[in-house]
Design brief:
Largest sheet: 7 strands, antiparallel
Oligomer: single chain
Length: about 230
C-alpha cells in the first residue's frame, strides 16, 4: 500500500514554536538568498511608494510589523492601517487570519512583548508561509520596520551545501523541534524525504543529506553525500 506524503501545513493545536519549526528553515534559506544579493548594502524604505531600494535594486514591500526597542514590543501592521495604509498591510492581514483560525497568539495579538531577536522569528515564519522571497528590517525614527519583499533579482541557491548549512544554522540558533524542522524544510524545498526510526534522509537529486536523531527528536549528526562531485 502506497503511503501518502503528509503536506506541510499549519494544523489545529500548533504552537508558534511548531509553526516556526515547520516554516522557519525555509524562511532562513530565503534570508540567505537575499544576503547573497545585497551583501552589506542598507535598504532605504519608501512607505509612500511601497518600495525598498538597495542601491540600484528596487523591490515592492508589504509591511509585516514593527519593533520598539524602548517598549520591547512587536506591533503588527494589520493593527496600524492608519500609519501604513490598507495596501501595504495585506500580508499581515493574512497572517492575522491564520492566527485567529488556529489560535496562534503571536499572529493574532496586535501587540506582543518580546525582544528584537524574536521579531526575526516572526518575520521569517510569516515570509515563508506567505511565500514571499525574503524579509528585511529597516530602522526608522526609533522603530525597526519589518517588510516582506518580492523580487526576481533574488536567486535561489539550491545546492546541497546551502541546504545542509542552512538547516545546521537554523536548528542551532532557534528553539524549534529539529526532527519536524528537517522534514518540513525538505518537503517545502520540493526534495524527497524518507524517515527512519532514528534518522531521516533528504534526497536532493542524486545526493543525500542524512540527519540522525535521539528518541526525543534532537540531532545527533548531519551527514552529506554529494554524488555530483
Amino acid at each position: 500500500m502506497k503511503v501518502i506524503e503528509k503536506e506541510i501545513t499549519i494544523e489545529e493545536g500548533d504552537s508558534f514554536k511548531m509553526v516556526l519549526s515547520k516554516y522557519g528553515a525555509l524562511g532562513f534559506d530565503k534570508q540567505e538568498n537575499l544576503s547573497d544579493l545585497i551583501g552589506d548594502t542598507k535598504g532605504e524604505l519608501d512607505l509612500e511608494k511601497g518600495f525598498i531600494t538597495f542601491g540600484d535594486i528596487r523591490m515592492p514591500v508589504q509591511i509585516l510589523g514593527f519593533y520598539s526597542d524602548e517598549l520591547n514590543q512587536w506591533s503588527w501592521a494589520w493593527d496600524n492601517e492608519d500609519i501604513f495604509g490598507k495596501n501595504l498591510i495585506q500580508a499581515s492581514i493574512k497572517i492575522k487570519a491564520v492566527g485567529d483560525e488556529f489560535g496562534i497568539t503571536e499572529f493574532a495579538a496586535p501587540i506582543i512583548q518580546l525582544n528584537y531577536d524574536a521579531c526575526h522569528s516572526i518575520a521569517m515564519t510569516a515570509t515563508a508561509f506567505l511565500n514571499y522571497d525574503a524579509y528585511y528590517a529597516v530602522s526608522e525614527d526609533g522603530l525597526d520596520i519589518f517588510v516582506a519583499v518580492e523580487s526576481d533579482d533574488i536567486k535561489e541557491d539550491n545546492s546541497l551545501l546551502r541546504f545542509r548549512n542552512t538547516f545546521y544554522k537554523f536548528q542551532k540558533n532557534f528553539r524549534i523541534y529539529p526532527k519536524i524542522a528537517f522534514e518540513a524544510y525538505t518537503k517545502l524545498k520540493g526534495y524527497g524525504f524518507k524517515p527512519h526510526d532514528d534518522f531521516a534522509v533528504a534526497k536532493i537529486g542524486e545526493s543525500r543529506i542524512i540527519v540522525g536523531f535521539t528518541e526525543r527528536g534532537n540531532i545527533t549528526r548531519i551527514l552529506m553525500y554529494d554524488e555530483e562531485e
